[in-house]
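Page 47, continued from p. 46.
Same chain as before, 211 aa.
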Amino acid sequence: MNAISNLADATTISVQNVDTPNALSAFLNPACAAAIWNKHTPAHIQSGLNNLRPEQLPRGRITLRSELAAEAVTHLCDIAEMPSGPERDWLESDIAALATLFSELLNTKYLRLRLDVVTTNACRKFHIDALTARLVCTYRGTGTQYGFAQAGNDPKRIITVDTGAPILLRGTLWPEKPASGLLHRSPPIEGTNETRLVLVLDPVLDPEGDA
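Result:
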């Protein structure tokens, strides 16, 4: 049975912060609008990623089986000529682990893996994505921002996810009742000289149609 079917009505909608990857199963709770794994990048790895030139950061979009994520990220790192070393090894391993975790949680074999290098105000408007669910992890720069709001309004309270912490977000196709009212955005950074490295994982039901 698909992991996101047969959900009961939610009464109290909340964002769950968890300390272990297994605890991300809270995302499947009807009352959970989003789940955040309070994971931190090792300090020496974060420093190394922050010191890379933007053109050395991997970027691209690939639809693949989750077990091929490591190979795909290696290929993207090769294209960007990201230097060999502990930062690259850690990044490739972490993305592969998140791909496995996300695919198992949502019971999907295929994922759309996207790595973005962001220097502008991309997706700066609060929104909800037109899909079932999405995992976002910011490896460099300011993390994703979220908040609760009524339709057509921006959140009054904005929370920023920590760098290195994955957040799982529900989209408009998630069969939740009622809608959570949780919106998110990329933080506005234009003019700050900040460079963000962002991983996005989406479940794919039809890999041929997604090509």
